[in-house]
Amino acid sequence: MATQMTYLIRKGRIEHENLIRIGRTEPWIRERLQDLEVYDIRQVRYALLDENGTLHVQVRV
Questions:
Q1: Which residues belong to any copy of the YetF C-terminal domain (predicted)?
Q2: b/e burial code for range 47-59 (CB count within 10 A of at least 16 → b)
Q3: Each residue's pLDDT tens digit, 2-61
Q4: What is the CATH number of domain 5-59?
């Protein structure tokens, strides 16, 4: 069974419409990234939220 994934960040840009759709805010995603020691959103290739609420993040190196 495929897991539904929602893009929250693509190519360093926040997908505000998707945040609104899932009932989250920009400060929420920034806090989650800080928990992962990511402080600059521009360095995020993508951040995906799966249907279980797990955040998957790929940063540029």
A1: 5-57
A2: bbbeeeeeeebeb
A3: 678 999 999 999 999 999 999 999 999 999 999 999 999 999 999 999 999 999 999 998
A4: 3.30.240.20
- The C-alpha R_g of the chain, in whole angstroms, comes to 11
Residue pair 47/35 in contact by the 8 Å Cβ criterion: no
Name the nearest CA neighbour of 9 among 28, 37, 61, 35.
28
Whole-angstrom CA distances from 13 to 2, 3, 21 are 25, 23, 16
The Cα 6–Cα 37 span in angstroms is 21
According to the model, what pLDDT value does residue 3 have?
Answer: 72
